[in-house]
Amino acid sequence: MTTGIASSCKESGLDRSLSQAGNNRKELEAVLRHYRNAPLKLQAARFLIENMDAHYGFGGEAVEEYYHAMDSIFRHGKGDRTYWNRQYDSILAQVGTGLDSCMSVPLFDIEHIKADFLIAHIDSAFAVWDRNWNRQYSFDMFLRYVLPYRIGHEGLSLWRGNLSMAALEQESYKQNIFNSTYVYEIANTISWLLRPAIYYPLDKLPNLKLASCREYAHLCAALFRARGIPATVDFVPQWGNRSLGHVWCVFFPNNQTSIPVELCEPLGTEFMRRREDRLPKVFRNTYEKNPYSLYVQNKERDSLPSVFNTPYILDVTDQYVETSDVDVHLYNLDYDTRYVYLSVFNDQKWSIVHWARKKGTKARFTKLGRDIVYLPVYFIQGLTIPAGNAFLLDHEGLKTDIQPDISKKISVTVKRKFRDTKSNHFLQGVIGGKFQVANRKDFRDSITLYDIPRIEDNRYHKVNTNMSQPYKYFRYLSPNLSRGNMAELYVFNETGDTLRPHEYFGNLHTRPGMGIENLSDGNTLSYYESHDLYNVWYGWEFESPSQISQILFLPLNDDNFIREKEIYELLYWDNGEWHSLGQQTGNFKSELVFKNVPSGALLLLRNHTKGKEERIFTYQNGKQIWR
C-alpha cells in the first residue's frame, strides 16, 4: 500500500521527499493515507511534504533542558526582565556547552516529523481557514502563508493553539464579514498588543522574551497565521549604507498586496521611519521551494554564502524600492567559479547581498536597490574576493564605477569617521538653547551669555564670554521640545581653571542613569536627559561668585567626530584592496586635512585608538559624502 501511495503521486517533488525520508517515510505516508478521502487536506499534506526536505530545527537533551528552564522562569518572573536576565545567565552557564553542540547539528524535518503532529497541524490550519471573513484569499495563499507548521528553525509545536489572544477572540471576529477591512482590524490589534524589547542574543538561542527583530518577526507571523491571515517574514541581509540587516513580518490583506508590520506602530510605517536606510536587496522567507533560487540552480553543489544556502527565499526587492538591472565587468577571471556575488559595505567589511551567474567576463545583477555602493565579489572557500570595480548605483539608476584617479591629487578635509544622520539629529536639540548667569537662584536677574545658533558639526564647542563681573549661579536653559540633551558642559575662569559646582540644581527629573553628573564625567557618550519636554534647565552654584571666561559644551553625540590625541588613518579603495594615505593625530578643532589623495576615490577613515563604526565615503565639493 505504501508503494502505491508514492507511485500514484505525479509530483516528482513528493516522490523525492518520500525517498529522502528514510526510516521516517512511513510517518509521512500515514499522513497521506489519513487524508485520502479529503482532497483539499490531501493537497495540503502533499504541499508540506514535497517542500519539507530542506527544513530543519534543533533538538537534543540540552535543548529540551533549556526550553524547560526558560519556560519555568517566564512563568515565575511575572514580567520582571531583570529577573529573567539574571536567571538566563545562570541557565546558559548550566547548559551552554551542550546547547552549543546541539544547536550546531540540524534535525531535518523529513527525517523526524511524526504523522500525529503533521495531521494535528493541518487540521488546526483548516480550522482557522474555514471562516467567512477570510475567504477572499486563494487556496494557494493558504498553502504558502497560513498552512506551514514552522516560520524559521524553531522547535516544532502545535503553536496555533498556544497563540490564542483574548483580545482577538471577540464574538465580532466570528461574524459573516467578507472583506479585507476586517483583516486590518485584526492586524492592528496584533501589532499594538505586542510590546517588544529588542535584544541581540548569541546566535541561534531560542525562546527569549527579549529578542532580536528576527524573533519578533517570526512571532508576529505566527500570530497572523494562527488567525488564518496569510503572513510571512521579509528581510534585508545587509543594509546598503549602514551596519546590520533587518527582519520584519509582512501580512497579506488580499492575494496580491503585502504590508510590513512594525510592532507597536501603525501598519505599513516600517520604512517610513527608515528613510535614511538603503535597501540593496529584500528577500521573502517561504515554506515552498523557489525553483529560481541559487540553492536550486546550483546543480554543481558549489559552496554558497549562508544567505543563499536555502531554497526558501524569494526576491521581492522591487516591492519595496525602485530597482535597476546592472551589467558588471569582471576581473580575477582565473577563479574557477560559476557564480559572482554583489556585496555592500557593512561598516567593517564587504557583505554579500546578491548573486548572478558568470558569463565570460561579465555578470548581470537584477533588481538592485539604488543610491548604494556595490562591490562584485567571488565566494571561494568561505572568503569574499573582489571580482570587479566598486560602483555607485545612484538614485536615478545610473551606474558609475568608482575608480581613483592617481594622476589627479586633491586635499581632503575629514571631520568624522561615520555617517552623521544621528549626530545631526542630536544637534537639533540644542539650537536655541541658552547659557545664563545670575546672582539669584531663581534666575530672575539672569543674563544670557550665549544663544546656541544652528551649528554644523557635532563636536566640542568653545564659547568666549567676555564677562566683566562675577556671578553666583550658572545654568543651561534647553529649548522646548528638547530634553536638555547635553553630553559634556564645563565653565572656566579667566586663568583657564575649571569652575567646579558647589551644588547642582534645576530640573533633576531625569531618566535613570542620565542625571546632571554626566555633564562632567569625561565620557562623551553619557549625557543628561530629562523626563520633561518643556522648561528644562539645570545648573549649579559656585563656591563663591566667579567670572566665567569660557564655556565648553558637547551636545548628545555618537563619539564619531575627530577626537584629540586619537590616531586616524585615511584609506582609499583600488584594485580590490584598501591603500593607506597616512596617519594623523586628532585635534581639538576636530578636522584633519590629508593631502595627495587620488580624486574620485572611495575613502574610509579608520580610528586606531578606539571604536568600531567606520563608513565609506566619497569626497565632493569639499564635503564627505557618506555611502
Fraction in beta strands: 25-35%
Radius of gyration: 30 Å
- Give the overall silhouette: globular
Low-confidence stretches: 1-11, 166-172, 197-210
Helix/sheet category: alpha+beta
**Count of distinct strands:** 30
Compute the number of helices: 14
Mean pLDDT: 87
Major sheet size, sense and barrel closure: 8 strands, antiparallel
User: Helix content range of the residues, please?
Assistant: 10-25%
**N-to-C CA distance:** 62 Å
Topology, please?
Elements: H1 2-8, H2 12-20, H3 25-34, H4 39-50, E1 56-57, H5 61-77, H6 81-102, E2 107-108, H7 109-112, H8 115-129, H9 139-145, H10 159-162, H11 180-193, H12 213-226, E3 231-236, E4 246-251, E5 259-261, E6 283-285, H13 294-297, E7 313-315, E8 323-329, E9 339-345, E10 350-359, E11 362-369, E12 372-380, E13 383-386, E14 391-393, E15 399-401, E16 405-414, H14 421-428, E17 434-438, E18 447-451, E19 461-464, E20 471-477, E21 486-492, E22 501-506, E23 537-546, E24 550-555, E25 567-574, E26 577-585, E27 592-599, E28 603-607, E29 617-620, E30 623-626
Antiparallel strand pairs: 1-2, 3-4, 3-6, 4-5, 6-7, 8-11, 9-10, 9-12, 10-11, 12-13, 12-14, 14-15, 16-27, 17-18, 17-20, 19-24, 20-23, 21-24, 22-23, 25-26, 25-28, 29-30
